[in-house]
Amino acid sequence: FFFKKKIIIEIFISKINFFDIGSLNGLIDLKVKKYNFMFDFFGFDPNNGSYTGYKKIFNNIIDKDSGKKKFYITRIPDLSSTLKPNIKFQENYHDLKKFEIIQERELNADTVDNISIKNNILVDFLKIDTQGTALSVLKGSEKNLKNSVIGLEIEVEFQETYTDQDTYIEICDYLNKLNFEVLDILDLSRWEYKNSLFYGDPRERSCGRLVYSNFLFLKKLDHIHNLISEKKTNENKKSYLKKILNILLAYEKPDSVKFLFEKYSYLLSSDEIKCYKIFSKAISFKKRKKNFVR
Predict the structure, then answer these.
(1) How far apart are CA 239 and CA 149, in angstroms?
(2) The whole model's pTM is what?
(3) Where are the beta strands (DSSP E) in the chain?
(4) What local confidence, expressed as pLDDT, does residue 192 receive?
(5) Are 239 and 14 spatial neighbours (Cβ–Cβ below 8 Å)?
(6) Which of 29, 43, 38 is nearest to 249 (CA)?
(7) Do the bridges between strand 151-157 and strand 125-128 make them parallel or antiparallel, or are there none, so unpaired?
(8) ∠ CA 182-286-278 to the nearest 5 degrees?
């Protein structure tokens, strides 16, 4: 316990501001929840949900513009959106009823950039799960994407599950122009036709049609180098580097962590480097052991 506490103290910095856009189910859905000591979580969802663990909750629709927006509430609240479900596509698959619209509401919409300015919060990380409207959320976050955001986790769709929704190609192209690249595909979710023999968690199916996934984006390496170099003091450079390293640790990317702390070792103390090595090795061993067991 003492050793674990020492590692946390050595790598800890000011908390990472994590904007969870589409936070209906609370922290339980977050892949980084077990590393919550690293983050200040801010939740955004127009539906009522389980919000324990968030520093602040915003009940706005998050979009590219502020104003009033129609919101379609579905039988399963997780699937609610400002877009209507694409019934023509969905009718061939299981559980069509869960997409049934049970209520339409006119709600306030705002942008990430507006909320960031009003609340004096610079966004370090964006998680977006808004049922087909990720590109609109990104367009309303552009100032933060250019100036402060280090990484993103975005649910992207490969099929048109909602009418007039964004495509994964549009999202990747938009973020590429802002110097982000795909670091990993975190999971793949497949739908099976309604006459299939097996039906369960879409993330655990080995067959079926690929419908959506969660992509992890990070600033491009050359751009990270430029951003670190632009910081005026070594302390600011170190603080920025540690935010990047800690996000990568939380998403369990030990190879990326090792690459970066070796490249910028001159910014870190020997104790900090030692702790990052230990933390990275522990994650790497756990992941390799899990894959071996499979």
Answers:
(1) 14
(2) 0.91
(3) 16-21, 39-44, 56-58, 61-62, 67-74, 101-110, 125-128, 151-157, 180-191, 209-219
(4) 84
(5) yes
(6) 38
(7) parallel
(8) 90
| Token representation of residue 180 | 């982000």
Helix axes 270-293, 254-263, angle to 10 degrees: 160
Instruction: Render pLDDT for 38-52 as a digit per residue (tens, 0 to 9).
Output: 999 999 998 866 567
Q: Write out pLDDT tens, residues 112-125.
A: 999 999 999 999 99
Q: What contacts 27, CB < 8 A, 6 or more positions away?
A: 33, 36, 41, 52, 53, 54
**138: region left, alpha or beta (phi > 0 left; psi from -120 to 50 alpha):** alpha
Rg (CA), the chain: 20
Between the alpha carbon of residue 101 and those of residues 24, 97, 130, 160, 161, the distances in Å are: 17, 9, 16, 17, 14
| Residue 278's pLDDT band (cuts 50, 70, 90) | confident
Q: Six-digit token pair at 235?
A: 């302390």
- Locus of tokens 């936070």: 23
126/45 Cα distance (integer angstroms): 14
* Pair of tokens at residue 199: 């039906």
Residue 64 and residue 166 in contact, taking contact as beta carbons nearer than 8 Å: no
Q: Check residue 15 and report its DSSP letter.
A: P
Residue 62 CB neighbours (<10 A): 27
Structure tokens at 24: 């209906």
Neighbours of 51 (CB within 10 A): 18
Query: In Å, what is the CA distance from 25 to each residue of 89, 135, 198, 285?
Result: 26, 22, 26, 30
Residue percentage of the chain with pLDDT more than 70: 89
Contact 149, 124 (CB under 8 A): yes
